[in-house]
Amino acid sequence: MPSDTSASSTLPTTSYRGLLRNREFAGLYASFTLTVAASTLSGFALGTLVNHQTQSPFLTAVSMYGATFATVLGALTLMSVADGSRPRRTLVALQFVSLVGVAAQAVPGLPLAARFGLLLVLGFFQSLGTGTRMGLLAEVVPTSTYALARSLMNITSGGMAILGYAIGAVLLRYLSPQEVFIAATALTGVGLIIVAVTVRERSIRLTRRPGLRQTWTMNIALFSHSGQRALLLNLWVPNGLIVGCEALFISYAPDHAGAFLAAGSAGMLLGDLAVGRLLTAEQRRRYAFPLRLLLAIPYVLFAIHPPVLVATAAVFIASAGFAATLPLQEQLLELTPDPVRGQVQGVESAGRMTWQGIGAAIAGGVAQHFTPGTAITAVAAISVAITVFSRPFVVRARAVRVETANA
Fold first, then answer.
1. H runs (alpha helix) in 255-307
2. How far is it, in rounded angstroms, from Cα 179 to Cα 197?
3. Tens digits of residue pLDDT in 104-141
4. Which of 195, 194, 172, 188 is nearest to 91 (CA)?
């Protein structure tokens, strides 16, 4: 693990400030921050546009998270590019594709079919970009600070989402969705420039040519490992179903959706800050199960259509449970060989995002036949059931990790 050695020799590893002294991490972090802000703005603008045009809870939910459906295609076909010989160049190219896609959404009068097609294309390339970015992250910071780095990025994701939803709600009172798309395009462009000037090329990569065969070979090995399989499924399904609940906020309460989404982002920020910064690795693993339950249980309140303040508080508290992803991601990293970290983390991210889209589709489909509040409650109850049922498999994954380490 030579990359860890070089990073740890100059980087204080006990604080976020220490991480940000690493120029490459700071570049990845800043680019990620701008990408999340742009994605939040464009997603909220598109969801609002679709809701106004169709009044369909299903289409509105899918428009906000539709790009996630295509991430699975990236995981199944070309995710091995995340571990190619020139990851920096790959990331810059993928960022440029995202820039073009976001800019295309700003075209006035673009048919909804074309907008949904753009979502799928963007989702495909964004999944490859995420794998490449996370592969680089695992190389530019020591393994001992990986959870801290992911925590900071998750916190930032929550913070940018809060600002994005709040600012998006204000902007859409004065600007058209197309003009908001232009703002998102500008943020994406700045993120591209930052990556290009701060991140250097890495050489600790696979020597085999990336492609479909290499991707499938690694994916088969990944899902043949019982510990990795259990961790991936627990990272994907419960979270994705709760994102489906969030996708119904516009249909549930159009005038308060921005507040709900901002509260959810704030709760996620607080949870990641507390879990990533204040808890030890062992404590994170111990609290992973209660956090996954916390993620879903407060949404049961939506069955009785609570007052806005109560509903907002429930969303805030529940979203702290998203921090359960940190200990699961740590365990997954421990089980992953260094040369394929980018692909494995790309598969993890792609599957998680795909399940966000599936969750949105499930919740939106239920809301088509029942009320949005009923759909939110039902989907949250399913998330709780899956979390409880899958707990033994996560515990078993820990045992596999220990046996592998001792082997």
1. 257-273, 281-296
2. 28
3. 988 888 888 888 888 888 877 777 777 778 777 777 87
4. 195
Residue 337 one-letter amino acid: P
Residues in Cβ contact with 155 at an 8 Å cutoff, skipping those fewer than 6 apart = 269, 272, 273, 276
Q: Could you identify the residue written with the tokens 């805030």?
A: 316
Separation of alpha carbons 378 and 249, rounded Å: 15
CA 315 to chain CA mean position, Å: 18
* Residues 257-300 pLDDT 10s: 878 888 888 888 888 888 877 787 788 888 889 999 999 999 99
Q: Which amino acid is at 218?
A: M
Cβ atoms 107, 177 nearer than 8 A: no
Distance of CA 127 to the CA centre of its chain: 10
Residue 248 corresponds to which amino acid?
Answer: L
Residue environment code for 231-251, b if the CB has 16+ CB neighbours within 10 A, otherwise e: bbbbbbbbbbbbbbbbbbbbb
Query: Residue 245 is encoded by which pair of tokens?
Result: 């609940």
pTM, full prediction: 0.62
Q: Which of these, 126, 122, 127, 164, lies nearest to 34 by C-alpha position? A: 164
Please give the structure tokens belonging to residue 11.
Answer: 């980087």
* Tokens of residue 94, six digits: 């993928």
Cβ proximity of 154 and 275 under 8 Å? no
Contact 350, 71 (CB under 8 A): yes
Q: Which two tokens stand for residue 394?
A: 């996560």
67-77 and 341-369 are packed helices; what angle lies between their axes, rounded to 10 degrees? 150
**3-class state of residue 21 by DSSP:** coil
Separation of alpha carbons 225 and 222, rounded Å = 6
Q: Residue 164 is encoded by which pair of tokens?
A: 């994005």
Residue type, 353: M
Rounded distance between C-alpha atoms, residue 224 and residue 216, angstroms: 12
